[in-house]
Design goal:
With 217 residues, the protein is an alpha+beta fold. Helices cover 40% and strands 16% of the residues. The longest helix is centred in the C-terminal third of the chain and has 21 residues. It is globular and about 55 Å long.
């Protein structure tokens, strides 16, 4: 078990560096967690995480009920949001919450992203919805996020950025970057009134690929 926990903490360190280097978070914002398989536990980044030089010993091991298992730091203030998703979706193994610029610009407009590229269907499961606003750290934040996400793996949090869930940490990192890319394209395209979505009848096969490979429902 010690080796497993060590490996999970190293995955959090890797993901922390990746999302910082990719411009998806600044120091002290956002959060990342990973499920401890076979137990009702998770490991999460600490409050005000330094994504540049994360250390394994900084990560916080806690139960899904919120009890500390191991760690000297305070867990991220959004630990409740992560725990809600792990309880509601047993196939979710990893979660990343970012405040990336273009996605956040949509979050303050309470807008989602329609299906504008086929890769959204394959990797995200379709469009990216925006959840109703709820204050950070509250039960309603998690409730609204899960309801709006539906059967997909991504949701924009009103006035709060986005959250990505998945089976692997690599998927979550790459998907968080994909969401930001799609948000950037959509925001820039909104300077023109002529946005064309992919027709519904052309989406079916790509949605099936998402269900087979990446769905957490």
């Amino acid at each position: 078990m010690k080796e497993l926990i060590k490996d999970l903490k190293e995955q959090l360190c890797w993901a922390s560096r990746e999302i910082y280097q990719r411009g998806l978070v600044n120091i002290g914002e956002g959060n990342i967690s990973i499920r401890v398989k076979g137990k009702n536990e998770m490991i999460i980044t600490p409050s005000r995480n330094d994504y540049r030089m994360p250390m394994s010993e900084d990560m916080v091991h806690m139960t899904l009920a919120g009890k500390l298992v191991e760690g000297n730091n305070k867990p991220s203030s959004e630990s409740y949001l992560h725990r809600v998703f792990y309880k509601a979706r047993p196939n979710v193994n990893c979660i990343i919450h970012t405040h990336s610029p273009y996605t956040s610009s949509l979050s303050i407009q309470h807008k989602g992203i329609p299906v504008i590229f086929e890769e959204m269907l394959i990797f995200l499961g379709g469009s990216v919805p925006c959840a109703k606003y709820a204050m950070a750290g509250t039960a309603n934040l998690g409730k609204n996020a899960i309801q709006s996400m539906g059967n997909q793996n991504v949701v924009i949090l009103a006035n709060h950025g986005s959250i990505v869930v998945g089976k692997t940490m690599e998927y979550c990192v790459n998907t968080a970057q994909l969401v930001e890319k799609m948000a950037k394209i959509f925001v820039l395209a909104n300077f023109s009134p002529d946005i064309k979505k992919i027709p519904e009848e052309k989406q079916v096969d790509f949605r099936l690929q998402f269900v087979e490979e990446f769905s957490t429902v």
